Amino acid sequence: MSSSTAPRRGYHHGDLRAGLIREGIALLAETGVAGFSVAKVAARAGVSSAAPYRHFPDREALLAACAAAIIAEVTDVLAAAAEQAGDDPVDRLAATAGAYARYVLDHRAGIDLVYFHDLSGPYHEVVQEESRRLTSALMDLVAAVLPEDTSWADTVEFVYVHLSMTHGYATLLRQSTPKDAEAYAARAAAAARDHITGHLMRLHGSTP
Amino acid sequence: MSSSTAPRRGYHHGDLRAGLIREGIALLAETGVAGFSVAKVAARAGVSSAAPYRHFPDREALLAACAAAIIAEVTDVLAAAAEQAGDDPVDRLAATAGAYARYVLDHRAGIDLVYFHDLSGPYHEVVQEESRRLTSALMDLVAAVLPEDTSWADTVEFVYVHLSMTHGYATLLRQSTPKDAEAYAARAAAAARDHITGHLMRLHGSTP
DNA sequence: GTCTATAATACGATAGAC
DNA sequence: GTCTATCGTATTATAGAC
């Protein structure tokens, strides 16, 4: 019974697969996709450069697993922010923009994997699955903001634009001042609110 | 006089420096920063892998030169789009969002260099110079949209958000359907218009 | 100013011991 | 499942011929 829970030796890991994904995400946050390599991830996890190939067939598969994990985490972060924002639909949607900005500021380069890597290859079904989860969560929040008779296509389009400006603001932001994250998150939320307001104005056919 | 205008030999180039930047931009558009290498750029330009080092001290300098050229081109494209949009300030600003989307669709991965690479190192004064030109051009367009008594800081913030959502929409867009660019550009412009309208509403203190 | 050749390094991936 | 060892390849950058 002595070997059931404790690691057998120094090089043994309880769950190397999970550890590699964790270290992969950390490496991506520091260097971006350009600086990502299987060897570096392995070194960070404290194993040899051959070990990852027991868990992932090639570099691309490890990268895809990291991307899926990042998207999953973002989804959870946005959902939590909406939950915490209260009952008003506009507040809830705007809060996701602020939370996204905060996330990108923390994970810096990590997010570029999701937006700049070609996700159409093999192994990427997992990534697309997580992307659908994220989109789905936002669909619910957006549907609560738009009028009840809004078509599915228009709702999707609004999700698209909301995520776009949220992502764009957060990444531009990352370039400049890295401090005072809360102030920037608040401004990201305010920008999202402007967009929501303007869109509702257009729907109502009035102009300022 | 026979050697003054014509190339002397097969390996001779009139302006290799410019050619390297041109091919570097094309390579970035195809592969992104991760796939960028001095050797590949040299091969595309039809010279040996050592030749670029006569014109750029290292890889980073070539990359910086490409980034500066990309930003300069974007600046020109946005200015031309505003010019072509007519006299209404809102039309002119919204047009830049559409033009940006069109540019990113054409140059795909190329733009990530500008937004995801660390631009704080050496050689990057040129990049920051071009960035300032872009910001400055947008400042004029935004100032024409906002009320005359708007502070400089608020104008900068609006430029920031406008560019953010413009960039975000264009890059998200690049991920999905690559066809029907004009329709997407029109929607990018419409999204920018929503943001402008919503912001003006907030300034006027009214709600939808 | 461009070439050929090369050094030093890092990477992806595999083979075989344990 | 992880190790050590290794092959093949691509990269950055330099040296020296022309």
From TrEMBL, chains A, B:
It comes from Nonomuraea solani. Residues 14-74 form the HTH tetR-type domain. The keyword DNA-binding applies. Pfam families: TetR_C_33 (PF13305), TetR_N (PF00440). PROSITE patterns: HTH_TETR_2. Gene3D superfamilies: Tetracycline Repressor, domain 2. This is DNA-binding transcriptional regulator, AcrR family. Residues 37-56 bind DNA.
